[in-house]
Amino acid sequence: MSPTPVALSELIAALGGDLLGGSDLQIAGIAPLDEADERSIAFLANPRYQVQLATTRAACVIVAPALAEAAAARGAAIVTPDPYLYFARLTQWWAQRTRPAAKAGVHPSAIVSPDAKLGQGVEIGPLAVIESGAVIGDHARIGAHCVVERDAHVGERTRLAPRVVLGYGCRIGARGLVHSGVVIGADGFGFAPSRDGYVKIEQLGNVTIGDDVEIGANTCIDRGALADTVIEDGVKLDNLIQIAHNVHIGKRTAMAGCGAIAGSTRIGANCTIGGAANIIGHLNIADGVHISACTTVTRDITQPGVYTGTYPFEENSSWQKNAATLRQLHTLRERVRALEKK
Amino acid sequence: MSPTPVALSELIAALGGDLLGGSDLQIAGIAPLDEADERSIAFLANPRYQVQLATTRAACVIVAPALAEAAAARGAAIVTPDPYLYFARLTQWWAQRTRPAAKAGVHPSAIVSPDAKLGQGVEIGPLAVIESGAVIGDHARIGAHCVVERDAHVGERTRLAPRVVLGYGCRIGARGLVHSGVVIGADGFGFAPSRDGYVKIEQLGNVTIGDDVEIGANTCIDRGALADTVIEDGVKLDNLIQIAHNVHIGKRTAMAGCGAIAGSTRIGANCTIGGAANIIGHLNIADGVHISACTTVTRDITQPGVYTGTYPFEENSSWQKNAATLRQLHTLRERVRALEKK
Amino acid sequence: MSPTPVALSELIAALGGDLLGGSDLQIAGIAPLDEADERSIAFLANPRYQVQLATTRAACVIVAPALAEAAAARGAAIVTPDPYLYFARLTQWWAQRTRPAAKAGVHPSAIVSPDAKLGQGVEIGPLAVIESGAVIGDHARIGAHCVVERDAHVGERTRLAPRVVLGYGCRIGARGLVHSGVVIGADGFGFAPSRDGYVKIEQLGNVTIGDDVEIGANTCIDRGALADTVIEDGVKLDNLIQIAHNVHIGKRTAMAGCGAIAGSTRIGANCTIGGAANIIGHLNIADGVHISACTTVTRDITQPGVYTGTYPFEENSSWQKNAATLRQLHTLRERVRALEKK
């Protein structure tokens, strides 16, 4: 991955941790234990994988104190209380070493309104459009083909990957990362029925996004009908997610790809929502709730905990028999009741 | 939301309705009953929320005749047969007052083929691409970064938000609204298996979309294999929806986000399809069918009605027990039958 | 569809097959049997539709040898061992006849780094961005508004439709087709929890895509965390699919729209995955596995076969009763067991 290897001592100087042995070892990449070679650094966070210590070829393994001895017996080791967190910080340091630095400045092909406000050290990519009244915070990076509409705000050091739409009046805070294809601020889905068909309810709210938020590719966050749709600080959204109008997502909640939150639902802080899970509209979900993948939530959840509603898959012919019986389940219960009465 | 408040009398002059009291009141915004302040107008459409009349701070409430007295007892009121429809029209009027007017003209950075036909009062945004033979109707608005491919048609007063692709030969009628990231006219998914792998079936049809259609962000509508994929007048599609090749959706059907309609399925008029509901291919769905959210439709529906197939979620440990039993459901029925025979 | 009809004899000269009668017939289009007119060619691949032979108005029907006599009795016929494959090849030939040829060259509005390498006969569309170190193979076509980031590779004769993002360091092989809105190489979704919130795990891998791969509109394929996400030769992905980091999809596997494959899952060769089916992370799926639409796969599948887990939909009031009973299914089994003991 990296053209220039780095000495373990340099890595330790940057990230801390106790190094056991091998400070002169040159590291050329980061790898999983079972794919590492003699120039790789690996980590062991889950004790389940401890057996891999015996076979990994990694030059150095990041481990917790309990495994320090075992790791050092086979080669260099970095000892740290939380190896997975250390690994995360290592990937950040590695990315910074190996990726090109941001180039402050406005690409000559970008179309920036004279009424937009650009902070210091801002990078505006090729063919980006920044409309009137938009505000781009210091050191923010706006990728190629992005559209930042009128009066939208991008916080300090937030990065929009190529081809993001940030709708008029919408705001994202500091240190955010928005991936390609994201649409923030499309209209919420609201219509009044009439004899002549649906009459559009213009969506007059905006989208307000806090600091340290990451938003995955092709995810959509609609603007509110009257008040704003709100994503609080530290929320992480994966790809292809739909956040409907007036949803409110609490701090540090994380949501895996392809799920949807329907209109006006309020989700607490520190929740996790599995992939392709859906939550219908106008619900309240408490703090600390964990929704399993592919679950449909149809009523309020008032207590923290793990909630699931995934249809068990099976070999097709078994499924056919069971699914057919499922359609008669209520009748089956009545039959059991009748038997019990006898 | 609005910098310039407006007198209730002016609002009534524009939208009609019977005003009870307060014609000089200045309205600065529209809000839900429970969030309204003394400069807001609110509406009460659902009698369930009637108790909020006593506590709302709204300057004026839009109500049906049955609630006129109760509403007028607490402040100004607008009386109208359908408060929700009135509210929808109010949001439209409000948006028109407060949003910048369209600017007719072609942005100098747009790339418009000399063979494209642009109607009167058309707005073409920055960096849009309009290919040869494309036709843009009067007063249509094409957003930044849109691509209108060769021989595609955009009807009068239809608006494409920034970054929409309208594929070659595809058509959308009048007064439509297409949100960012929509792809109309990508290839349908068709392959013939062969000993050497899949052989592509070129998709030779187009997409034909009627008048008054709204299409949500990042939704995809594929072109037909031979004949066209058809979306009739007044259809409303939310975000992240997949409409496969040769689907036909009847008039005024509405579909919430994240669902998919597989190839060649025909959906009637005046249906509603809940969020994340899926309909498999080659089916016929009658007029007036309502599909609940997250339901999978696997066979024809010939009668209007409400249809559901959502797995009930529950606390994870209960789910585990019930899901395990579900895999033995057919056997359980056999056991009940055996008991009954005794 | 086509302005210029073609004689059947010319069609046979290009595609082969045995023509029975009608070599002078002029064909103006391809149509399904039941929509064909006197200037159309149709095909009959599924014996179930044999009755349509009696009523179709098609000028010529493509049939298997077993139906040659019946087809020739009513008009011209092309006899070929695999009519569906012949039809696929016919659509390709037809598309080539009727669509404008690629125009080699770089559109003057495209922004191509001087450090990018463009092969022979390459077409770069309007407003495309090709970054430093990118390599575009011979006769590849890059659509309008595409972004090919630094060091990304596009193989020979691969076509990117308008508005595709191919992330830095990602590769796609030869003869691929990538539809609009696709995002290849956004970050995988990886974070380490900490007391101060989630800490991002930078995604240091790339995406590697083989030859002859088609990717549908608005689909996302994330880059790997350490190693690459891999899509092997001949894979076909429909629209709005999510492929998470470090997924591996084997040769000639096809996946219909709107499904998701979670992180590090490995899918074999020659699988089919139905629409809106989801596979959770860290699983192994064998070769030759067929997953039904809307199924959630939650554990390894080691044997080829058909696997299903779709909740059966029904009329809403029946569903309510059955779903309520489902929540007590385990208890119901206990009651049956108690009855059996008596």
Automatic annotation (TrEMBL), chains A, B, C:
<dbReference type="InterPro" id="IPR011004">
    <property type="entry name" value="Trimer_LpxA-like_sf"/>
</dbReference>
<dbReference type="GO" id="GO:0103118">
    <property type="term" value="F:UDP-3-O-[(3R)-3-hydroxyacyl]-glucosamine N-acyltransferase activity"/>
</dbReference>
<keyword id="KW-0808">Transferase</keyword>
<dbReference type="InterPro" id="IPR007691">
    <property type="entry name" value="LpxD"/>
</dbReference>
<feature type="domain" description="UDP-3-O-[3-hydroxymyristoyl] glucosamine N-acyltransferase non-repeat region">
    <location>
        <begin position="24"/>
        <end position="93"/>
    </location>
</feature>
<keyword id="KW-0443">Lipid metabolism</keyword>
<dbReference type="Pfam" id="PF00132">
    <property type="entry name" value="Hexapep"/>
</dbReference>
<comment type="subunit">
    <text>Homotrimer.</text>
</comment>
<feature type="active site" description="Proton acceptor">
    <location>
        <position position="245"/>
    </location>
</feature>
<comment type="similarity">
    <text>Belongs to the transferase hexapeptide repeat family. LpxD subfamily.</text>
</comment>
<protein>
    <recommendedName>
        <fullName>UDP-3-O-acylglucosamine N-acyltransferase</fullName>
        <ecNumber>2.3.1.191</ecNumber>
    </recommendedName>
</protein>
<dbReference type="Pfam" id="PF04613">
    <property type="entry name" value="LpxD"/>
</dbReference>
<dbReference type="InterPro" id="IPR001451">
    <property type="entry name" value="Hexapep"/>
</dbReference>
<keyword id="KW-0444">Lipid biosynthesis</keyword>
<keyword id="KW-0441">Lipid A biosynthesis</keyword>
<comment type="pathway">
    <text>Bacterial outer membrane biogenesis; LPS lipid A biosynthesis.</text>
</comment>
<comment type="function">
    <text>Catalyzes the N-acylation of UDP-3-O-acylglucosamine using 3-hydroxyacyl-ACP as the acyl donor. Is involved in the biosynthesis of lipid A, a phosphorylated glycolipid that anchors the lipopolysaccharide to the outer membrane of the cell.</text>
</comment>
<keyword id="KW-0012">Acyltransferase</keyword>
<keyword id="KW-0677">Repeat</keyword>
<dbReference type="InterPro" id="IPR020573">
    <property type="entry name" value="UDP_GlcNAc_AcTrfase_non-rep"/>
</dbReference>
